[in-house]
Specification:
The protein is mainly α and 120 residues long. 67% of the residues lie in helices and 0% in strands. It is built from 4 helices and no strands. Helix 3 crosses helix 4. The longest helix has 53 residues.
Length: 120
């Protein structure tokens, strides 16, 4: 009996150690998965992985450049002109007794796209 009492004093029960009302979080579900560094992998696959990562990063940089240098300025110009035309029409209707009517929506949109692309 004395052996179990000495074991009981050195053993900490998780339920008894936590205060009432606190939550014990379980281990992460990824803890049971094997680690990413396998001793069976060869050096050639590591080199191939780094080449693939480098190509992936380079392609992401090219997409970022495409977006920042071409698409964003073009779309900004297009939507900026649409907002300016809309604002000017509202101002003219408010300031003067003029009604601004766009007769052909397709021609208006096409002209806006051509004007936006003219200086690019």
């Amino acid at each position: 009996m004395s052996d179990t009492s000495s074991l009981g004093s050195s053993y900490i029960d998780a339920a008894a150690a936590t205060p009432a009302g606190s939550i014990v979080t379980p281990a992460s579900p990824t803890d049971s998965l094997p680690s990413s560094s396998d001793s069976n992998s060869s050096a050639t696959s590591t080199v191939g992985d780094t080449d693939a990562d480098a190509e992936w990063k380079e392609s992401l940089q090219q997409l970022e450049l495409l977006l920042t240098m071409v698409l964003v300025p073009y779309l900004g110009k297009y939507f900026g002109r649409k907002a300016a035309y809309w604002g000017w029409a509202r101002f003219m209707e408010w300031k003067y007794p003029v009604e601004v009517v766009i007769t052909s929506k397709a021609a208006f949109k096409g002209a806006g796209a051509v004007e936006a692309a003219a200086s690019i």
